[in-house]
Every structure is written in C-alpha cells, then in structure tokens.
Amino acid sequence: MSRKKLLVLNGSHSEIPLIVSGRELGFRVITTGNDPSLIGHKYADEYIYADFSNREDILALAVKVEIDAICSCANDFGAITASYVAEKLAIPGHDSYETSLTLHRKDLFKIVSKEVLLTTPDARSYSSFEDALFATNESDYPLVIKPVDLTGGKGVCIVNNDHEYKKAANRAFQLSRAGKIVVESFFGGSLHSFSAFVINRKVRLYFTDNEFSYINPYLVTTSAAPSVYSDIFSEQLVIQANKLAKALNLVDGVLHFQYLANDGNFTIIEITRRCSGDLYPYPVQLACNIDWARWIVMAEAGMDCGYFPHSIQSGYCGRHCIMSHTNGIVKEIIIDSEIENNIYKTVIWGGKGYHITDFMCQKLGVVILRYNSNEEMLEKTKNINQLIRVKIA
Questions:
Q1: Nearest to residue 181, comparing CAs of 224, 129, 244, 141?
Q2: What's the pLDDT tens digit per position in 211-260?
Q3: What is the pLDDT of residues 277-295, one digit of tens each?
Q4: On the chain, which terminus has fewer CB atoms closer than 10 Å, C or N?
Q5: CB of 83 within 8 A of CB of 105?
Q6: Rounded CA gap, 252 and 299, in Å?
Q7: Which strand ranges, in their side-by-side order, compose the sheet holding 355-356?
Q8: Facing residues of 348 across strands?
C-alpha cells in the first residue's frame, strides 16, 4: 500500500522538524521551494522545485502529485499558500484562505485586531508613498515602518524624524510585494514570544520565551525560555488568543504571538499560524515534554488533535543562530568550553569554507541549549555571541 503524500512548502533548516515528523507519521514527504540547496530537502523523500509563495504554482504541483495533505513552512507566504491550496482541494487542517490572509498581512490584521479588541500598537496602513508622506507630524515620533507582507524583520525600521521616515517608507514600499506598508506607534520594551496550541478555539498549552538580536536589530537570533514576563502576562495572552480563535473560528493548531513588554504593559506586534523558524519546536519539546513539530504536522494534515495533552512549561532552554560579524569565508566556528555542556542539539550548514555575503541576515547554523537554572540561562544568553562565535579567514 502506497504512503499518503504530505507536501511541505520549503526545505530550509527551519522545516527539518516538520519533515522528520511527517515521515515518522507515515507520510511520503515532498518538499518544495525555489532553493534546492537548502539542508532540509535532504530529510525529505522527494524535492520538487516550485516557489512556495506562488499559490497557483503550488496548487498545480499539489494536483499533479496528488497530495493528501499540505504543511506550511516557517514563513507567512507559506501559511497563506497552504490555506489557499487546502481550500481549493478541500483538504482539512487549515483556516480559510481569507482568514489566513487576514492574520498574516499586517494591514488586514490591524483591522481585525481592532474588532476583536486585541492589545496591539496603533497603526495606519498606506498603499502609496505619497499618502504616507502626509500622514505624520513631529509629535508622532518615534514610529515603526513595516512592509505589510514580509517576515524576519525585512524592511522594518524605527524612525525618529521626517528624513528617516521618508527613507524607511520608500524602502518598505519597494520591498512589499503588495506595495503596502503599515506605520505603527512605537512601544518601548523587550521582545518575547507566546506560542500556543489551540484545540476547539481554546488554548490547550502555551510556551513563552525571551527573544534577542545580534547585529541586525530586527532579526531574532537567540531565545531563552521561559519569558521573564511569563507569570505577568501569560494569562492575558491566553484570553486574547481565545478571543481571536473564537472570532475567526480558527482550526486546531499552532497560534503564535510575538509581543513587546515592559514592567507594566505588553503589546502584540505579530501573529502567525505556522511553525516558527530556527528549530523552534525543539526548545518547546524540552520545556513542555511534547513533540511540538509532530502535533503541528498532525493539525495541518487534518488529523485528530482532540487528545492533545495538557502540559505546563518547565525548565530553562533556548536556541541560538550562529552568525558572523562580517562578510567573508568561514575559517572556524568556535564553541567555548563554558557552553559545551549546555548544548542539546546542533544543526550546522555553514561550516569551514562557507561564503558569507550578507552577514546581517545569513545564518550558519542553530544550536539548541538547555540550562540548569534561570540565572545560568540569562548570564550565558547575555554572552552567547562570545561563547559561540565565527572566525573569518
């Protein structure tokens, strides 16, 4: 008897947990994407070239290979495409295309967040550079400029005056595929994630962490769990997640918030319905004693998730993306003896001889870490880019 086919919409390092889980569940896993050199494709049964952000191309591919299920990648375009294909082919496990677009397009999400009364920054969206130019005055600054449809901090910029605003808005318009931007009020605080699994439109389990950046201030490279604000804001975040799930009639599966927090307040800045990147499932697995990637695949494949276990996050863990401080050829990745015993899992694809052409974005590997105490975690996280560093030839 032939195995059912699962299409996973990319094959980067971030999709490795999904691909492995899909095969363990008995699927024949087919990966796609427009970069055949990505490390994740090696874990799949088959790779077929296609741009996962092109929903019509992926629909044609899905029909051609007669897939039984589709799983998004760690990218918003993948989540939107997966919902589109699932809706067209009547495949379960995904929100409607309209709902997925609403959640993953920043301008559309701002509309629904007001309707549902979510705690998010005040924001305005613009579809032309000219309209955006006449929308601010001196008292509004600082502001945050974002393309409506990109992830990983691409095109995001905090601006403090008219000159910076014009420059950032112009760049955001150029980067946005939809040709739209959002302009948000600035919220001063540290960055965190709240990742929940929703069953019957209610949060069954959640995981929180602290997030940090290296040289690029808009690209998360390191996490440490639990969040320092977990005890303060998690209950409110659960309430907001439940409100959103009910209002949009979300299907079972992951619901991920990225939020900013300070001592008195928090604000949600991003929401996604897909697996988070950079091997995010592994820290969740360590902290919650649950195979996070397996459950995500099950949900997106339309399998029964009603017996999803109750669990409470415990222990101290995190992940770190290995990055260079400059362009060049990698001579060595140095892991200090002080951090060696904390390493749980390592995936490296950019070792000796790897050519770095964009050190602000290029990642060489991901290290999953666990710690004996909160104090150890916070101290080593603070020094992580010295404890794990890249030597350039």
A1: 129
A2: 999 999 999 999 999 999 999 999 999 999 999 999 999 999 999 999 99
A3: 999 999 999 999 999 999 9
A4: N
A5: no
A6: 6
A7: 355-356, 328-335, 388-392
A8: 365
